[in-house]
Amino acid sequence: MPTRVELCRIDQVAAGTALKVEAGGLVVAVFNVDGEFYVTDDSCTHGPGSLSEGFVDGDVIECNFHNGQFNIKTGEVVSPPCMIPIRTYPAVVQDGKVFVDVD
What we know:
It is a single chain. The chain has a four-stranded antiparallel β-sheet, with no helix packed on it. A four-stranded antiparallel β-sheet has the order 5-6-7-8, with no helix packed on it. A three-stranded antiparallel β-sheet has the order 1-11-10, with no helix packed on it. By secondary structure, the protein is mostly beta strands. About 0% of the residues lie in helices and about 50% in strands. Strand 2 (about 20-25) and strand 3 (about 25-35) form a beta hairpin.
């Protein structure tokens, strides 16, 4: 049965930004894309970059390390040098907070 992990309050993540969160054994980036919340692993799959410290452009995050890009909503690679998608987690917004359910 999945465990619900609280990540942050929605007011901690302004539109067009990301927040690094360490909770429940996860290190994730919480993104606010036009008022919708998305959660991915924070680590870039190409190198030591932290995606929460990258540049958000719409629904794309550009890693601050080698400038590879991922789709925030799907985790798919948008631009090299990254080749491996990032893991995404379905975000649950409830009572002004962002949660994920993990196994």
